[in-house]
Amino acid sequence: MSTSKSYHHSDLAGQLIKIGLDLLREVGPADLSLRAVARRAGVSAMAPYRHFADKDALLAGIAGHGFDLFAKCLTDAAARAATPAAGLRDQGCAYVGFAIAEPALFRLMFGPMISSDPAQASLARAGAPSFMALERAVQAAHPTADDAARHIRILACWSVAHGLACLIVDGKIALSPDMIAQVIGTLS
Amino acid sequence: MSTSKSYHHSDLAGQLIKIGLDLLREVGPADLSLRAVARRAGVSAMAPYRHFADKDALLAGIAGHGFDLFAKCLTDAAARAATPAAGLRDQGCAYVGFAIAEPALFRLMFGPMISSDPAQASLARAGAPSFMALERAVQAAHPTADDAARHIRILACWSVAHGLACLIVDGKIALSPDMIAQVIGTLS
DNA sequence: TGTACATCAGTGAACGCGCGTTCACTGATGTAC
DNA sequence: TGTACATCAGTGAACGCGCGTTCACTGATGTAC
């Protein structure tokens, strides 16, 4: 584990994901290129291919990292709240807040930019913990509901939060945090 | 108004929008190119520039046509229902149904593909009637609510429908029409 | 009714661009004996 | 402890691609006199 600037990188894969995320924030998902990521990493255009099968694999890596942040964000929001009902509501607000804070990343995670089959599969795996955080929050807030009703409720909560997030991120509406909480609260 | 195949098109602008929509359905918003639209219209790559300032303007034209169809779809759904409450619910289902039937068009209408200022402005104008159809349906179903409460309700209804539509279109979940109706119904 | 001419709506060749990816390669590293 | 050699992790030049857009142009149309 040397710290010298050797020919070999110690963790190019991790660096590329980190730099890719920075670049994604600057230019958006549509204009993010493999070459630009390599360029900023100070490495040849071909170097990323040592660590990622293709561009989609790098994108899936970035999105996967995004889902890690996202799951933590959702879990923390629910945990901080005083009651399960407040936890569910706060989690919804956190969902929308994440999208507003990270619009490009949010689009990459949920949008159609990642298309190859293996990349999509790894993306689905990365998204599971976030979905489970949502499931837990609904379960805690509605412990007596039967499975079918709870399933509907989960989807409804997810939909309001996701819809609000998309509409805001895509510039269709602009809402204050207070308004967001009220809209999210409609379902609680 | 001759029908001869003359040098001059009678309505190239309309043709380009129609063909652009076809092509959009086939290849998706990311891969839709001006040249491909011109090619299929049997016209040179430069011809569209007689009718549209640039690619974004054509995209806005296509999306605008999409919003016409969308507004009609929403209005009809609400009008067909027996009661205002059913109208609101059916309209939500129609919203999601439209997205499922026209995923590429839906993405173009609501996504970030159209970026230039003038194109975005024309897009916003084209979207107004659809939003108004939603407002009317909520107003009919909740006539006694005060303005603030109604505003929240409109946003909530919009969000559930939009979120569900996005999640389905982007392949995050797959739902039967019956399940969709149940999720939409959570808010009615 | 005929003609001159402005305008309209196309053509077709060419431009520069950055991209993802291929290829053959080379320098650095670690391990077996 | 030294050395041979496999493997790993990069380089750098080159490819073909289709794109949006520019440019100068030409054929068709319609209108004023």
Set out the fold topology:
The structure is a homodimer of 188-residue chains.
Chain A: H1 12-27, H2 34-41, H3 55-80, H4 84-101, H5 103-110, H6 117-141, H7 147-169, H8 177-185
Helix pairs in contact in A: 1-2, 1-3, 3-4, 3-5, 3-6, 4-5, 4-6, 4-7, 4-8, 6-7
Chain A binds a DNA duplex (33 and 33 nucleotides) through residues 6-9, 12, 33-36, 43-47, 49-51, 54-55.
Q: What kind of sheet is the major sheet of chain A?
A: none
Can you write the helix and strand succession of chain A as a string? HHHHHHHH
Radius of gyration of chain A: 19 Å
Q: Which quaternary structure do these chains form?
A: homodimer
Overall mean pLDDT of chain A: 94
Number of helices of chain A: 8
Percent of sequence in beta strands of chain A = under 5%
Distance between the termini of chain A: 51 Å
